[in-house]
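Predict structure. Chain length: 296.
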Amino acid sequence: MDLQQLKYFQTVARLEHMTRAAEVLNISQPALSKAISQLEHEVGAPLFERVGRAIRLNRYGALFLERTEPITQILDEAKQEIRDLVAPNSGTVAIGFTHSMGTRLVSRAVQAFQNEYPETDFEFVQRNSLPLVKDLNKGLCDLCLIPYLETDIPIDWRELWREEVYVIVPLHHRFAKQDTIRLQDLAEDPFVTIKEGNSLRQIQNHVFEQVGISPDIVFEGEEFHTVASFVEAGFGVGLLPDLQRIDGYQIKRLHITDVVCERRIGIATMKDRYIPQVAKQFEAFVSEHLYHFTQL
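Prediction complete.
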């Protein structure tokens, strides 16, 4: 058994598809299948169940993955530390960010950073907050730009800024001519919300609980613009931060007066895990130049 076999095994376990894993690993599928079979022979038990064209871990494979991931992680971190000593201003930063961050900050920050450090590359993952934290835990990202999220995964999260969350209503709504509103006044209204797994949903659940509302949720969207479009169409009211991407919708933003409603944006990394030097430099760069990126 060698490190390469473990890498092959972990890639197949993550993708749950032999052909896709072979493409990612840049080897032929027969060669990958043979390596997995040899590993199963050495372990003394099958590690996967075949389900049609898909493949997934069985209980032996799940245990083997749990025990071997720390081994490859330690080796990867050791190699990264050596690379940082040899070339501290180069390398690849794997960054995760939410959909709303992609429209405001990430592209501007990456472009400016690469202008200053041209030997750097970036890998990007764009998902909702909770899946990003899980990716961070798996080592798929060095850092994530996400709103604050309550999670059992041990992360370090450093706040960058805060932004207000507003009630949004369609222009024909009875409160559309107001500038402020109490959440309690919407207790009987249907709500359009973001799906669970997004930090904004946690904020919504928290403020609803604070004011004693059990909202009638008629639709759960994946992204903010979906929520805005359903509110515009009159399906209900919603809660969204003040983002440029929803300015084109025929909706009215109302400041909430009976409870503090805001989301905190920051950078998350894993606790007690080595972070590549170039990723640390990017984090510091974003913090230092944050105002410039958000005002462009």
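Summary: The chain has three domains: 3-73, 85-160+264-295, 162-263.
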